[in-house]
């Protein structure tokens, strides 16, 4: 019975999570190829999938080398947004005064286009890694704060009262009740944040950098080398997917009790 | 902790019923309220929630408060547990004035409020963690309590794997694990279906008898109040005040058959009249 259940769950997971999007992707690629052949679109406008794959194969070492700075900047920016975002959310959720001062400004700051101010970071910090990290951080920060605030605020006040009535200190009650309760919301914020951090890092590379996938894209557009540009796009998409997957895995480890993870528990027990 | 109440002593059922009298105990034990009122400050001015209350709950007594919604029953509970300071008057628990959370209470709310990331056993152990008491010492007690409410074998389950009634039973264990003198229950079975509710009432009465705790229970249900209580306090509409306090003449132990007793129906009827005449006057 248990064997049978595992069998069917494996096939189900393969069906839903993996095969279907892959098949759809395959369909899109085929349509792309067919369209180019039928309408005879020149390669400097849209490259054929075959050309992109060829570039991916020949330029692989170079692309890999260039994706490290982007990955590095993304992860640094992401970690910064988690390290700053969660405590800021704690302050906002914990104090009405702090909320009234900070929250409106935070929302206001979101309407400032980061791409427009990214050159400023180059002026301030030069062409190194720092402008990219800052730009990744700025994009990733907001979703973490918003989700975490919502997570901290949705704690049942009765639950907090219960723990406080047991003479729990503020800190102990926070660690035992508020923080774990906010974890699912924090993680949904982190997942949005990691994908935005990739965008942020690339924006940083666009405006002023001599390394990274963003730089490769910028350079290949300048020379109408569209197959390379598309290859860089593929690398970028893969980077986003892998980083998202890593955060998702960590989430499963940290909050195995949450509703979204319950299927796993049933099959495990 | 009092050496006479060792953590596992409740395991031996009490040999006989306690006789509850109005005069027994005095201010040194149980709960005493003198002139306790509560007024909430809001933007639109002061909102009186409770008018001055004076009453005493004896040690080991099953005391039930009934009243309409919003009569300040939950406020009363928070003040006794020390979470909320009364606007006037003072509350004595075991002869000590309540000024901050004193931890000598176990609380059960309408929702079981179990932490979804802790299994049943460590949910029950929450008060021990909060009070920083030695875990090893209380673990056998927590297990014995789970056994007492018929949840042995569920220690490692997560809360959502249990039914509503079972969750509420676990939350009763949590309220008892640190061996408080008093159990405060805010409509503990309000979220359960009628059949489970009756079963839980019988269960609760047994648990109270075996542990000898002082219970202050708040409910909307008049039959439930009469069935459970040694004494019933009837509250008026907002701002809450004492309308009457009734002794329940039914003998203990009670079974569900007690609800057919003429004394039971008569008292239910009398309490019900309170609310009807009162709202007619309003």
TrEMBL record, chain A:
<feature type="transmembrane region" description="Helical">
    <location>
        <begin position="133"/>
        <end position="152"/>
    </location>
</feature>
<feature type="transmembrane region" description="Helical">
    <location>
        <begin position="21"/>
        <end position="39"/>
    </location>
</feature>
<feature type="transmembrane region" description="Helical">
    <location>
        <begin position="72"/>
        <end position="93"/>
    </location>
</feature>
<feature type="transmembrane region" description="Helical">
    <location>
        <begin position="196"/>
        <end position="217"/>
    </location>
</feature>
<dbReference type="InterPro" id="IPR035906">
    <property type="entry name" value="MetI-like_sf"/>
</dbReference>
<dbReference type="GO" id="GO:0055085">
    <property type="term" value="P:transmembrane transport"/>
</dbReference>
<dbReference type="Pfam" id="PF00528">
    <property type="entry name" value="BPD_transp_1"/>
</dbReference>
<keyword id="KW-1133">Transmembrane helix</keyword>
<dbReference type="GO" id="GO:0005886">
    <property type="term" value="C:plasma membrane"/>
</dbReference>
<feature type="transmembrane region" description="Helical">
    <location>
        <begin position="105"/>
        <end position="127"/>
    </location>
</feature>
<protein>
    <submittedName>
        <fullName>ABC transporter permease</fullName>
    </submittedName>
</protein>
<keyword id="KW-0812">Transmembrane</keyword>
<feature type="transmembrane region" description="Helical">
    <location>
        <begin position="229"/>
        <end position="247"/>
    </location>
</feature>
<keyword id="KW-1003">Cell membrane</keyword>
<keyword id="KW-0472">Membrane</keyword>
<feature type="domain" description="ABC transmembrane type-1">
    <location>
        <begin position="67"/>
        <end position="247"/>
    </location>
</feature>
<dbReference type="InterPro" id="IPR000515">
    <property type="entry name" value="MetI-like"/>
</dbReference>
<keyword id="KW-0813">Transport</keyword>
<comment type="similarity">
    <text>Belongs to the binding-protein-dependent transport system permease family.</text>
</comment>
UniProtKB/TrEMBL annotation, chain B:
<dbReference type="InterPro" id="IPR003593">
    <property type="entry name" value="AAA+_ATPase"/>
</dbReference>
<dbReference type="InterPro" id="IPR017871">
    <property type="entry name" value="ABC_transporter-like_CS"/>
</dbReference>
<dbReference type="GO" id="GO:0016887">
    <property type="term" value="F:ATP hydrolysis activity"/>
</dbReference>
<comment type="function">
    <text>Involved in beta-(1--&gt;2)glucan export. Transmembrane domains (TMD) form a pore in the inner membrane and the ATP-binding domain (NBD) is responsible for energy generation.</text>
</comment>
<dbReference type="GO" id="GO:0005524">
    <property type="term" value="F:ATP binding"/>
</dbReference>
<protein>
    <submittedName>
        <fullName>ABC transporter ATP-binding protein</fullName>
    </submittedName>
</protein>
<keyword id="KW-0547">Nucleotide-binding</keyword>
<feature type="domain" description="ABC transporter">
    <location>
        <begin position="31"/>
        <end position="262"/>
    </location>
</feature>
<dbReference type="InterPro" id="IPR003439">
    <property type="entry name" value="ABC_transporter-like_ATP-bd"/>
</dbReference>
<dbReference type="InterPro" id="IPR050166">
    <property type="entry name" value="ABC_transporter_ATP-bind"/>
</dbReference>
<keyword id="KW-0067">ATP-binding</keyword>
<keyword id="KW-0813">Transport</keyword>
<dbReference type="InterPro" id="IPR027417">
    <property type="entry name" value="P-loop_NTPase"/>
</dbReference>
<comment type="similarity">
    <text>Belongs to the ABC transporter superfamily.</text>
</comment>
<dbReference type="Pfam" id="PF00005">
    <property type="entry name" value="ABC_tran"/>
</dbReference>
